[in-house]
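INFO worker-7 received task bundle
INFO bundle size: 2
INFO processing item 0
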Amino acid sequence: MAAKKDTGADTAKERRAAERRAAPKPAPRSAKPSAFNDSARADLSPDELRKLISEAAYYRAKRRGFAPGHELEDWVQAEAEVIGRLSSPRTAA
């Protein structure tokens, strides 16, 4: 029986196969990117926070017909509402 002669193609193929086996496997991907996990919070600038509070106060005033004399109460309640929403953990939908 004749011995099989080693060719360069066979050794190159074996070398590539060995490299594939030795290559590190990538980490498994999670369902959500880490930047969007349930505890992620957006960093808001003071201007953005003020805008959210202002909008919430506007809608409170609108619900009561814009009757004068309750502006400070609207603002304080809107501030508590916005800060509460930003600091509370989100529930999965």
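INFO item 0 finished
INFO processing item 1
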Amino acid sequence: MDRVDEMNEIDKHDDIGCLEAIETLYAWLDGELDASKRASFEHHLEHCKSCYSRAELERALTGHIRRSASPAEAEEERSLAPASLQNRLEKLLKEL
């Protein structure tokens, strides 16, 4: 396969750009994408360092927030988020 064929193959699968990737990021983190959209998003991440870095940062942050907001898991880690933060996060999540 020559370079042109290789680029055409990439273009067939990577049908989203950075803007769409960032707009799709939270649905991906929450497992809300269908298989096709997830594949396109993940393919984009494989080829875009900037979006990959953003996705990894958001994944780590989201995971930390989820663990901190869950009293059962947080007790195990001894890092329970303050009640005021838990209340604000719950309020923000309900507004979504």
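INFO item 1 finished
INFO post-check item 1: The chain has six helices and no strands.
INFO post-check item 1: Confidence is low (pLDDT under 50) at residues 1-13.
INFO worker-7 idle
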